[in-house]
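User: Some background: our group keeps a shared notebook of sequences we're curious about, and every so often someone picks one and asks for a predicted structure to add to the entry. Today it's my turn. The entry only has the sequence so far, pasted here. Could you supply the structure so I can complete it?
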Amino acid sequence: MNNWTNTLRTKFAPLPENTTAIVFRLLFPEEDTRRKYDMQETRLASALADCFGTSAAPLHQWAADGSSGCLGEEVLKVLNKTSSYTVDYISPFSIAEVDNMLEELASHSGYSDISVRTNNPRATRRSKTAILRALYRSLSPLDASFLTQIILKDLRPLLYPLPEVHYTVALKSFNSVSVTQLSKEDAMKAWDPTRRMLNIYRVRSGLDEAATAFDAGVTGTIVPRIGTPIGIPKSEKGRACLHALEILKASKEIWVETKYDGERAQIHVQILDSGRSRITIFSKSKRDSTWDRYGIHGVVREALGLSEEPSLDSSSTARVKTDVILDAEMVAWHGDNIDEFWRIRALVEHTARGVRHQPEPNVPPVNYSQASLMTDVSDDRHLGLVFFDILMLDSTSLLSVPYSSRRAILESVIQPIPSRAIFADRTRIALHTTPNNNDPTLHHVFAQCLARPEEGLVLKAAEAGYNDMRFPWVKLKRDYIPGYGDCVDLVILGGSWDKNRARELRVAPNAYTTFYIGGLHNAEQMKKDPTARPHFHIYFTASYGLSRDGLEETNFLIKSSDAIPYDSNHQLAALPFTFTIFPGLVPPTVILREPLLAELFGAGFTKSPRSRHYELRFPRITKIFRSRERTWQDGMNLQDLHKVARDVVGRDRSNKDIDDWNNSVWGKPISPSISRKRKAKADIWEEKLIADDRLRARKQGWTAFDSRVLQAAPSICSSPLPLRTRTNVGVSRNSSPASPPLAPNPSTPPPRHKARLPSVYPSPISSPLAVQPPNKIPSPAISTKDRESISDVLSKSLVFVAAQNPISRERWKLKVPPERIVHSLEALFIACGWDSGVPPSPWVRRGIIVLDVDESIVHKTNILDAMNERRAACIHQSNRAAISMLERNMLD
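Assistant: Of course. Here's the predicted structure to add to the notebook entry:
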């Protein structure tokens, strides 16, 4: 790039106007977000065959086994046979003329920027065929091949040709440092050694805008410009809580923001002279998505105190005088909660203006267990925004302002709107002060995030500017940490070559890079009829996870198994199973005669449009099993997968409210809701995060930073009082002794079945829960006999430690054998037989709940309310055990 740039400037100085912008548009066509051509390989191959007057068959074989996998390369082969141009022929077209014709070609697409279509109105522009003929008729074969890949927006296969053709050599003998691909940042450094263009691009991240400013000689401090996207800061990946903090250890104070599962929206708002406001919205890819996201325009204006009609604007409500640039996440709302990520797409299509608008589908009523997954749009779902940063206000750049100050400005500008516009939740963590047991730790915050569940966290240094290289943003997500992603066993039923993954791996089309994943659909039928053929539903693909050696081994396994070429015109009767393929998938190349079991992990679960089944988000294959190791029968069927996914995303089963109502009428236990299970999940996650960080610190060698961070985590040095048994325990609530021991918390609605059951308080010993007012039972001295009998007590008991303070929880667990500990109240209920339909554990005679009396009233009330529900229901059942509660006053 350096040599080419120097030669260009030597031979053609001075360079024509706009040369910088044109060169970068042609060299990095994937970054040209303004122009869309609506042509991929299949459509472009047919159009080029018409231009050349040749058969389209050779061009349509660009991805066939034995070909290059590059349409531009196939164009070169065809034209080398038919073109009359010599090797040293130079086209009479200048790059500016080629660029203008590409602009005209892009004007035919409704997805191109409005400026492209305005500059080439329908009345004057030529047809696509006429433009392509004009472009290609005076090009040499080599130039034509490059132009083809520019239209396809991918020059990689021509700039970095395949070193090997056979998949084994390409995968196993690959040298990762043999080729360094040119990035746009490196190209900018070569084009401008002073790095002025690169500095402009970091603030004004449109290639055209950065190139124009560079050619115009813009100097000094570069400020953002309304209508030009600002580059999103690159973030580091936190591989563990301790690792994430280590990256920012030079900071004195860190803010941990919740990363919401939505689509990035950089919002530019300009107040015009007429008083109206103009909104421009850029997506994460820097594409102008203003009209695609028309559904949030009203939310933006309302949050800023603006009105669509200037006559209604008021200086007393408007918090922006001239302009503002905001960073936000566009999310789907369902009632008062943020909905799942996959809901966004349909809401955008339903509310968009222009080519992306899709009318709401008419879904016929159907009796289906996953009917709520059939349509993504409903009356109580809508788009909303989560604001987390502000980059410019009233023409003043805030990029260099510390994060803590930017957040304060943001909160003064935005007016939250319930269920429509909120601020990102965040927690402060001080790194260089003495830890306090009441201060939140990253382990605790991340555990709460995983239990809710949210996508993850973003750590930001309080003193960092926007896109500050000294203090990068650090993302902490579950699937970033080894062993923490959602893991399932599903079956592989097909394979294919995917051009994008193949170009990353640099392999030819004779390699399988992408695998088709499905699950057993008729598990219940096969249980009833062992002779039934298994029926699989293939509905998503996985291209990542395997090492190059693992991928080569899988290719060998498939190619040696006599796989059948896929033909969508007829069912493959020779197979021992039947299958269906989700219509949204590109058909596979081959179908396996015998499905392979694969272990996959991902970042939660999502759903494709019009699909009824959850699939892993960002799926990665960790292992593919040979049939002698594990067979497809060991995999998860679609019904079980749906239950797992529903639990992970925090979604109650369909008709749960009806089932709960029925159970309450008949005095049966009500199944716990997702929200009730989250506390137990958070405790489990926190314990695991702390334990894993301590293990890593020990293996890698403790540092002073490790010790300081983990000092705030639960300590296991101090010992609590030995356990002692009491069958009736006074529960301290910091209230008057006359207060009812089981009075429900005002914020927690009482159980619906409670009033229908007779009062049994105070309860006999046969009742699962007996409680007396506090301060009535003296605490006896602990004798040697008490200490000796505790082992007998625990031998037939299960213990749940109900403590929010991680230090207290860790201390209690030192006194209880690990095999006697359960991690949730629900698990304790099930083991003791207090859950409808689940037989009790035969050896459990009692359940013990350790409840620290210094816990918050809300937490204790939640525990007691849950126990009271089960107590009322269990009165009408045969009793198996009485519950014992242990009390310890942390203030003693």
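Suggested note for the entry: The CA atoms of residues 388 and 424 lie 5 Å apart. Residues 365-371, 715-788, 875-892 have pLDDT under 50 and may be disordered.
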